[in-house]
Design goal:
CATH class of chain B: Mainly Alpha
Distance between the termini of chain A: 8 Å
Radius of gyration of chain A: 18 Å
Oligomer: heterotrimer
Helix content of chain A: 55-70%
Number of helices of chain A: 5
Distance between the termini of chain B: 49 Å
CATH architecture of chain B: Orthogonal Bundle
Shape of chain A: elongated
Chains: A mainly alpha, B mainly alpha, C mainly alpha
Radius of gyration of chain B: 19 Å
Largest interface: B-C, 38 and 39 residues
Number of helices of chain B: 3
Chain lengths: 148, 115, 495
């Protein structure tokens, strides 16, 4: 009995995935940044990005996806966590409670860009979600194919 | 509407417990999924059902108008869904591993640690 | 600074992330882990010292005022528990240095352990019911991972039971939170304590209280919800068993103390009467289960249950003396039980089995280890002047003073049977002649014995210098039974 998802060889899937992957990653970053003031954010952005990698994994297999990712998903997860936790710390410098958001306004090219610890936290969540889901997907698919 | 939701929640709980009491581990996981959904619906219903008034504000208004839905309950449910997602993903991996190791789908074969 | 309260959560979380980032090198993971748990111990000790000066330390996370944001609250009980957690964590990490196989470390043993710690201390320090749920889940997810590391058949079977019943308990907890929120519109514990006084429908409150009670009793391993515990706790490697045995069930007990000492105190005749019977049956069924077992780790697992019974009984009697006994019991038991599990790991190293029937001769061969076993074992059974004696003494005295004759009688009887179980382990594993089938002995690793000795010394200190610890427990009980001070500390004095 054939188990799990071996790389699919369908032409439509292969072609479509190559096109969709960069678009979906771009969209995930858009969602991440949009989460600043409107619906969106690190979690949903991370899910979209992880969805893109999972699609690639289903179509091209685990080995090719590892080559595509270049870094180990566990590293992404770990750095996501570290980023998220670091974002709680700057509040200490100003003698406030942990997690209190800190804002920094920059004037560049005539527009105001607001940077904040919230954004750092969101990037951390984004990375952690990508890391978790791809780790799980890799573990499952490599195990399933390995046990054939 | 609340009464209808209450009945639906009751049915969900009953179905999930029925599934969990079956002998197959796949059905056990189904039961767990239904269970987490039922619990989320309990929060959703007991915080009050409001239709057609999402708690979305313009940038200008600081205070929500009266009669909008309670956003806190929705935030609680969102958190609970994320947690349930993680836990259920783990249990799917777990039953897959268990099925590999024990070579059966039958919970009655898994009594070794009870003796 | 109030931010001190956050450190016992932040340090293990960061340590978890860093050890995960170092997943390629088990050597560095070990170094970071030892350093992090030592830091955790220092931070929690500082926190406890500050709490002893001020009574309460409250942090409103993110600067959001209570009851709108999440409050972290350290009172006596919470800070005692955090310090004991630090002790268990440090010794368990030391023990893991040599006993944990490299395959486990490769699959994330240390990150999971740290995240488990973060979940445990979060549960101790939070002042918000939903936040408590979140920390429970953090702790559960990490414990699922730790329980299944290694992937043996028994582990899989144990894990399925553990996961199922704990998820059921979580769903029940979540539903209870939902209904409570629907009833009073807040989840901050101090705010709940205020608002529940004005709720008219006592019947509804009792129903919610029972949902919380069942959910926490499942996590604590109380009668009749304990069957998952002896079916799963003996399956992982011994350092994990020891941490689970020491900390996880006690988080359930702590939640019971918090919720039934602060929030649901409106109808004590109803709720605490149920707790009383639950405590009695938990004691009895645990100790009888242990009497029928001949596998060390399973005997110890059943004894967790019977000792949990004492703690619940103390909560049920609900007098200052009883609560003081319960608090004393909590920290005494965490140390003793963790130590007994660690010792069973060492005997397994020596004789390669956990079955009492095929062990023997350890006293002649390893008199030092035998002495180290006797200290926690006799303390668990409650022989004076060890720590368990004072714990049992306080609970039983409270039972006599409040004229709970039956419960007190059962508690005394269970103490005797506990002694019987401990003597059984002693006689079979240590005293009787060594079976001929056993081969040459191995050398015990130094970092396996040092944690055991440290914990045994701690047991001796709590026993021989019991007075400050009893005073501390009494102060804790006084604080617990005075909800108004908690409410004032969290909500800032306004009613």
């Amino acid at each position: 009995m054939k188990q799990g998802f071996a790389p699919s060889s369908g032409l439509i899937m292969r072609t479509a995935t190559v096109v969709i992957l960069p678009l979906q990653l771009l969209f995930s970053v858009f969602l991440l940044l949009r989460g600043h003031n409107e619906p969106g954010g690190g979690f949903i952005g991370g899910l979209v990005a992880a969805g893109a990698f999972s699609l690639y994994l289903i179509v091209f297999g685990a080995k090719a996806s590892r080559r595509l990712l270049k870094v180990d998903p566990k590293d992404i997860l770990a750095w996501g966590l570290i980023f998220g936790l670091i974002a709680t710390l700057p509040a200490l410098l100003f003698g406030q409670s942990f997690f209190t958001a800190q804002w920094l306004s920059l004037d560049l090219f005539g527009t105001t860009i607001k940077l904040s610890t919230v954004l750092v936290f969101d990037i951390g969540v984004y990375l952690a979600v990508i890391g978790t889901i791809t780790t799980m997907f890799f573990a499952l698919s490599e195990r399933l194919i390995g046990s054939q | 509407m609340s009464a209808l939701m209450a009945v639906a929640i009751g049915i969900l709980f009953a179905a999930s417990i029925y599934m969990m009491l079956r002998r197959s581990i796949v059905k056990l996981v189904m039961g767990l999924i239904l269970l987490s959904n039922a619990a989320n619906l309990v929060i959703f219903t007991s915080a009050g059902l409001t239709s057609g008034a999402p708690p979305l504000l313009d940038a200008a208004t600081k205070q929500p108008p009266a009669g909008v839905a309670d956003p806190l309950a929705q935030a609680l449910i969102l958190t609970a869904i994320v947690i349930a997602f993680g836990v259920l993903a783990f249990s799917v991996v777990l039953i897959h591993r268990a099925n590999e190791v024990v070579q059966t789908d039958d919970l009655d074969q898994m009594k070794e640690t009870d003796q | 600074m109030n931010n001190l309260v956050f450190l016992p959560i932040l340090i293990p979380l960061l340590a978890g992330a860093i050890t995960l980032a170092l997943w390629r090198s088990s050597k560095w993971q070990k170094r970071v882990s030892v350093f992090a748990t030592l830091l955790y111990l220092t931070a929690s000790a500082t926190l406890a010292w500050q709490v002893s000066q001020q009574g309460y330390i409250v942090l409103q996370v993110g600067g959001w005022q209570a009851p709108f944001g999440i409050s972290l609250v350290a009172d006596y009980l919470a800070s005692i528990m955090v310090v004991v957690t630090g002790i268990v964590a440090f010794t368990a990490v030391l023990y893991s240095l040599v006993t944990t196989p490299n395959t486990h470390i490769k699959f994330g043993y240390f990150p999971l352990l740290h995240i488990l710690l973060a979940g445990v201390s979060g549960a101790f320090l939070t002042g918000d019911l939903f936040n408590l749920f979140v920390w429970f889940e953090v702790m559960l997810l990490a414990s699922f991972g730790l329980l299944t590391l290694g992937g043996e058949r028994a582990q899989m079977e144990g894990a399925i039971k553990y996961v199922t019943i704990n998820l059921f308990s979580s769903a029940l907890f979540l539903s209870a939170i939902g209904i409570l929120y629907g009833t009073v519109g807040t989840l901050n514990m101090a705010d709940l304590a205020v608002k529940l006084q004005d709720v008219e429908q006592q019947g509804l409150l009792n129903a919610i209280a029972l949902m919380f009670m069942v959910s926490f009793s499942i996590k604590a391993g109380a009668f009749p919800f304990f069957f998952w515990l002896p079916a799963s706790y003996h399956t992982p490697i011994i350092a994990v068993s020891a941490v689970f045995a020491g900390l996880l069930t006690k988080v359930g007990v702590y939640a019971l103390y918090r919720v039934f000492g602060l929030i649901f105190i409106g109808d004590i005749n109803f709720t605490h009467q149920i707790l009383l019977w639950m405590g009695v049956f938990t004691m009895l069924s645990g100790v009888l289960g242990a009497a029928s077992q001949f596998e060390i780790r399973r005997i110890l697992s059943f004894h967790i249950i019977s000792q949990i019974g004492y703690m619940i009984l103390a909560l049920a009697i609900f007098t200052p003396l009883a609560i003081a006994g319960g608090v004393f019991y909590l920290f005494h038991h965490i140390i003793v039980k963790t130590n007994l599990f660690l010792i069973s790991g060492m005997t397994h190293l020596l004789q390669n089995t956990y079955q009492l029937k095929s062990m023997g001769g350890l006293y002649r061969e390893r008199p030092f280890l035998a002495a180290l076993f006797l200290i926690p074992a006799m303390s668990l059974a409650g022989l004076p002047p060890l720590s368990g004696f004072f714990a049992k003494y306080l609970v039983i005295e409270a039972g006599i003073v409040s004229q709970q004759w039956l419960a007190t009688g059962v508690a005394l009887f269970v103490g005797l049977l506990t002694l019987y179980s401990m003597i059984k382990i002693w006689a079979e594993a240590f005293w009787k002649a060594k079976p001929e089938t056993l081969s040459e002995t191995v050398k015990l690793p130094l970092w396996g014995v040092v944690p055991i000795a440290l914990m045994a010394i701690m047991t001796l200190i709590i026993g021989f210098a019991a007075e400050p610890f009893i005073l501390l427990s009494q102060a804790t009980a006084e604080q617990l039974l005075n909800p108004q001070s908690y409410i004032n500390a969290v909500l800032g004095g306004q009613p």
